[in-house]
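A favour, since you know our C-alpha cells better than I do. Just paste the record in under my message, thanks.
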Amino acid sequence: MYKSCWWKFESGGGTGGNNAGGSTGGSSYSAKYAVGDIILNDGSKVNYETAKNYTDIDLDGLKSKAIAVIFRADTASKKALGVGLKHSISALAWCTSDANAFNKNIKTIQCPASGDAGNLTFTVDTDGSDNLEQIASFLTTAGLENDTTDASKYPAFYFAKNYKTTATNLGAAYENGWYLPTVAELFDIWKVKATVDAASSLCGESQFDASYYWSSSQYASNDNNAYKPNFNNGDWNNNKNNNNNYVCAVRDFTQKLFFEKLYLICKSSLQIK
C-alpha cells in the first residue's frame, strides 16, 4: 500500500519549499502553468482556450471541480499564482479601527507603486503570502498585543486566509495557503483580467468588475491607509484601513506542499473518496 503512494512521488522544481523569493528552477526551467489555466481540486488543470469548447456536460463537471485561475505563469524566478474563483460577496475592511495595526507604520508590508495607470512597477514587498505574519511580527516587536489571530479585526486578510469557508470544493489538498495579495500581485491580475474573468465566468464564478479591491500592502505615506487597485483602469488608489472594499484570495500553485502532493498521489493510488 505504501509503495503505491511513494513510488510516484516527485519533488517540485527548485531546491526548497515555498520561499518568498519564488525561485522555481534553473536556466532550463520549463513552465508548468499558463495564464488562463483553470486549476481543479484533483490537482489537474484545463486551459481556458480548451474549456471554451466543452460540451454542457463537460462544463458541469468543470464547475464542480474548478478552484482557481492562473494569472501569473511560473518562470525560473517567479511562482505561478492563481486567484480563487469566489470573491467576497460584500465589501470588507482591511482592519478595524480598534485593531492594533490600525494607524501603525509597518514598512515590511509596503509596496510602493510608480508609473502611469496600466504601466505600473512595484518595489519592496511584492509577495503577500506572509503579510499577516509580518503584521504580527511588527506588533510583537513594538511591544503591542498581537491581535492578528482575531479574524474580526482583520476581515480582508481572513477572507483570504480562511478561503476554504467560502469555496467549499477545495478538498483537503488545497484548503490552506490562500492569502490577501499585494498591490503588485493584484496589478498582475488586472493585466490579464479579460482572460481571468472569461475563465472564471466559464466556471460560473466571480469576475473582477470596475471596482476597488483591497491589497495587503500598506500605503507608505499614510499609516491609516492601504493600497486598493482600480480594476477599471489599472491605476491605484489608497483608502482608510477601516473602509470597505472587495477582496479576493490568491495562492501559489507552482510547488505543492509536501503533504498536498502526497495526499493527491495517495488519493489517486488508493482511490480515496
Q: What stands out?
A: The two ends are 16 Å apart (CA to CA). The mean pLDDT is 87. The first helix runs from residue 2 to 6.
